[in-house]
Structures are given as structure tokens and as C-alpha cells.
Write a structure and sequence with these properties.
- This protein is an alpha+beta fold and 163 residues long.
- The protein has 2 domains: 3-19 and 72-162, Roll (PH-domain like), CATH 2.30.29; 23-70.
- 44% of the residues lie in helices and 36% in strands.
- It is built from 3 helices and 8 strands; from the N terminus they run ββααββββββα.
- The strands form 2 sheets. It has a 5-stranded antiparallel beta sheet.
- Strand 7 and strand 8 (130-136) form a beta hairpin.
- The longest helix has 25 residues, at 20-44.
- The chain is elongated, with a radius of gyration of 21 Å.
- The chain crosses the membrane at residues 21-42, 48-69.
Amino acid sequence: METVSIRKKVNETIIIQNFKRAFKHLLTTIVGMYCLLNFLSIKIDINFSYKFFSIWLFLVLFFVVRPALKRRGIKVFLKVNNQKIIIKKQKIFGKDEENSFLLKNIENMVIETERKGGKVLVIKMSNNIEDRSIFTADYVYDLRMIRKIILEYKAKGEEEWNF
């Protein structure tokens, strides 16, 4: 449900991972279920216990989905150039996050499977810092493409650092 767009410039690349479609899909599913239950309760009979049940079901579904949405951001921006990578994460609830790493400090990039499902690109640094902000539900091609772009810029940067 997420989309990845890549914008290449002469000396940098901007990668945007967008989760808005997933958020809208979950929200419309919850609202649709709530409306359907209310429609059935009006059509059959005005039963207060059924109304009470449908309202509580809506609240439970909303608060069950909300932590999953907190973990995800709406957008993840990656700005990669020859020296550093900047990762900005826009969140639905809470503050936005921004991390900046030097490309020469990156030791390894691995695609791992999470316990809750999905794949994540783990960027391991030389000072024992890991970044796990780039992930996808099941499609690994996007993560491989992002890893390839970062490694290309790291190779370009190493050529410049050696001169």
C-alpha cells in the first residue's frame, strides 16, 4: 500500500516513501464498518444494546489501529548525496523525526524480516547505531533499489575522499 518515488538530480537523489494510501484505506474501512453496523441497526430495529455495541466496536477498532499507525510515518524522505544521507520521517501522531548520517560511517545495509510482518532496511553504522525507518509490507524490490542508490553514492563519495 505504500508508494516510492525517486527524484534524481545531478549531485543528489531524493527518495520519498509514502504511506498515505494505507492510512486512508484503514480509516475508510473502520468508518465503513461503523456505518454498516449503524445502517443494520436502524433497518432492523432501534436497539440500544446494538447501537452501544457498534459504537464500542468503532472505538476499539480505532484504538487498535492507532498504535500501528503511530509506528509508521506518513512519509519517509531520504536525501542522499556524496557525503551524507538525511532521513526525515513525518508522523501521523507526534513529532517528526530527522536523522543525518555520514556515508563513510555506514558499515552494512541488510534487509531483514520483522516479527510483525514486512521487511525493513537496516542501516548499520560504525558507532553501533542502527536505523530502521525504511520498511515495506512485503515488496522487497523497493528496499533493494534504495540500498543500491545509497551504495552508489557511497562509492562516489569514497572516490572523492581518496583524492
